[in-house]
Design goal:
Strand order of the largest sheet: 4-1-8-7
Low-confidence stretches: 138-146, 148-155
Structural class: mainly beta
Radius of gyration: 68 Å
Order of helices and strands: EEEEEEHEEH
Mean pLDDT: 76
Largest sheet: 4 strands, antiparallel
Distance between the termini: 179 Å
Strand content: 25-35%
Length: 237
């Protein structure tokens, strides 16, 4: 898919700093600065006094993009007070990654006038229009994507899975009624195993005769007939 138009969009460029710069001074430390050029637009950082070979800037600039122009030129100079500024090195920054992804943080190599290594410059590129273009592209492709409802009604049809019937596992032992009742090893306690013992002694005769029911009463053997107490003469003294 071709890239969307960049005409009139804004590119944000942050100059972080430089390192390992070629030294153009003999007796003192150089004072580098950075110039950014895009078409007819030109931005310059502050001068890093006595920055030497490693200068820090942390400055941000805005560029309005033009269709068909996707390169940014960077030039690093050494500031002089009494003479013309010294050229240290330059580089051409490709904007393809920043324009397509919206962000690029990279260190670029600087070259001197004769093409030799002259140090490095670090830039951070932000292109906010890339997110909007990607969002629009996603919406253009959405009609071809399958439409999935956000909510679905609960399934009320037959079960999609077979019904599993569970049976009660049979016991490994037969029921208790399958065995006949076992006879008791001992006779019931009510039946005596021995006959009743005979009495040790026979029943003795009664000490008294049964009373007589004959009438008239018989004469007592202990007293003579007609004699009663009080009829005998008193004993002599």
């Amino acid at each position: 898919m071709s890239m969307m138009s960049i005409q009139g969009q804004v590119l944000e460029v942050t100059v972080v700093g430089c390192q390992k710069l070629k030294d153009t001074e003999w007796f003192s430390r150089q004072d580098p600065y950075v110039v950014l050029e895009y078409s007819s637009t030109r931005h310059r950082t502050r001068t890093c006094t006595d920055g030497g070979k490693n200068a820090v800037f942390q400055e941000k600039f805005m560029f309005t993009m033009l269709e068909g122009l996707r390169d940014l030129k960077v030039v690093v100079w050494n500031s002089n007070t009494l003479s013309t500024d010294d050229f240290i090195g330059n580089a051409t920054i490709k904007l393809q990654k920043a324009l397509s992804e919206g962000y690029d943080d990279c260190t670029w190599t600087l070259q001197s006038k004769n093409g030799r290594y002259a140090g490095e410059v670090r830039l951070i590129l932000h292109y906010a229009a890339a997110k909007k273009q990607n969002y629009g592209s996603a919406h253009l492709a959405s009609p071809y994507a399958p439409q999935v409802p956000h909510y679905s009604a609960p399934y009320s049809g037959p079960s999609l899975y077979p019904q599993v019937q569970y049976s009660q596992p049979q016991s490994a032992y037969p029921p208790a009624s399958a065995y006949p009742p076992q006879p008791s090893a001992y006779p019931p306690s009510s039946a005596s195993a021995y006959p009743p013992a005979p009495a040790a002694y026979p029943p003795g005769p009664s000490g008294y005769p049964p009373p007589s029911s004959t009438y008239p009463p018989q004469q007592s053997p202990y007293y003579p007939q007609g004699s009663y107490p009080g009829q005998y003469p008193p004993p002599p003294y």
